[in-house]
Design brief:
The complex is a heterodimer of chains A (49) and B (273).
Chain A: E1 7-10, E2 21-23, E3 26-27, E4 33-35, E5 38-40, E6 45-47
Antiparallel strand pairs in A: 1-2, 1-6, 3-4, 4-5
Chain B: H1 6-11, E1 17-24, E2 33-36, E3 42-43, E4 57-58, E5 81-90, E6 95-105, E7 117-118, E8 138-146, E9 154-161, E10 168-173, E11 182-185, E12 195-203, E13 211-225, E14 232-235, E15 243-244, E16 250-255, E17 262-272
Antiparallel strand pairs in B: 1-3, 1-17, 2-11, 2-16, 4-6, 5-14, 5-15, 5-17, 6-13, 6-16, 7-12, 8-11, 8-13, 9-10, 9-12
The chains are: A mainly beta (49), B mainly beta (273).
């Protein structure tokens, strides 16, 4: 389950701009998870254990 | 034919076309973001939101979906057309006005979808930087005909570049609540210098609401005004003699420096020979 503080990998095609492992640092009013203010739907993120 | 002398420029000068457009209020200035008067009232009047569907349509001057284009006529008798003068007076703020040739646009993109939206576009007209269909110098953007909603996703466009290489990707990060008239330009893949065709579009999250269009443009000329209410001007020489190809749909937009509402007055002059 992804939440604020989760470590995630961003999936293709967005991994070209976000190629590393990131920490979710917010949630937008639309419900999307945020990395540095950029929104990602859950289906474009993969939780890194 | 080609105009190569000052006498040729003068001999081919067409009647000036004046324009005035009501204000578009921008968000904070940001890289690769502009605001177009395409949907603003004035002269020429507001253009309608394009509705050709997701596969888009080429923009041809005089068609019903490009009524916001500056008035012009194609040259006859094998002659060519060039910019002779662009005078632009932004009324609200220091800004740089862009004269664009609107080449292709679409409709029907979902603003909420987070899956790939496939596009099978028609070929662009021969209006790239060199007057060909290759796409050199053609830039891609998302243009909002009605205000967008919350959401700041990464947006990725898959495209064919100016050399015909397929599967290239371009990106930008969307801004929250873009007003009508906002254009968000894509950053192309490394080494690319233009877009020949758009083939797929995907967002990392929803934009929530609004109406957006994928558009292809060629920047014909730019003119800066350092003070609101003062005109900037460029001409045949200082603009680098850009050619205005047959059926060009000339569109005005601006790069802002503040969040103050910005209208426009000005004149456009073409020379043909």
């Amino acid at each position: 389950m992804i939440g604020i503080g989760s470590r995630v990998r961003v999936l293709a095609p967005f991994d070209q701009l976000y190629p590393d492992i990131y920490v979710i640092d917010g949630q937008s009013e639309t419900g999307a998870w945020q990395i540095d203010g950029v929104d990602f739907a859950p289906e474009h993120l993969e939780l890194v254990e | 034919m080609t105009i190569t002398t000052l006498d040729g420029v003068l001999a081919g000068m067409q009647a000036p076309v004046s324009f005035n457009k009501s204000s578009v209020t921008p968000l904070a200035a940001a890289t690769r973001r502009a605001y177009t008067w395409w949907y603003s009232s004035g002269c020429p009047g507001a253009s309608v939101a394009p509705s050709p569907g997701i596969n888009g349509a080429t923009c041809v001057y005089g068609n019903a979906d490009v009524l916001g284009a500056l008035t012009r006529s194609n040259p006859t008798g094998g002659q060519s057309a060039y910019l002779a003068q662009l005078l632009a007076l932004p009324t609200g703020q220091a800004s740089t006005v862009l004269l664009l040739d609107r080449i292709w646009h679409n409709s029907g993109l979902s603003v909420t979808s987070t899956t790939a939206q496939a596009i099978t576009p028609v070929a662009i007209p021969a209006r790239d930087q060199n007057g060909t269909t290759n796409g050199l110098g053609v830039i891609a953007g998302v243009e909002w005909s009605s205000a967008g909603g919350a959401g700041t996703p990464t947006v990725t466009l898959t495209y064919t570049n100016q050399a015909g290489t397929t599967g290239q990707t371009a990106t930008f990060t969307g801004v929250a609540s873009p007003p009508a008239g906002t254009i968000e330009f894509f950053a192309l893949a490394a080494g690319d210098t233009g877009v020949r065709a758009c083939t797929s579009f995907i967002q990392s999250a929803t934009r929530t609401s609004g109406t957006m269009h994928l558009c292809l443009y060629r920047v014909v000329a730019m003119v800066g005004s350092a003070v609101a209410g003062n005109a900037g001007v460029t001409d045949f020489f200082t603009s680098g003699r850009p050619q205005i190809y047959d059926n060009s749909c000339l569109q005005l937009a601006y790069i802002n420096s503040s969040t103050t509402a910005n209208g426009l007055f000005g004149t456009y002059v073409e020379t043909q020979g």
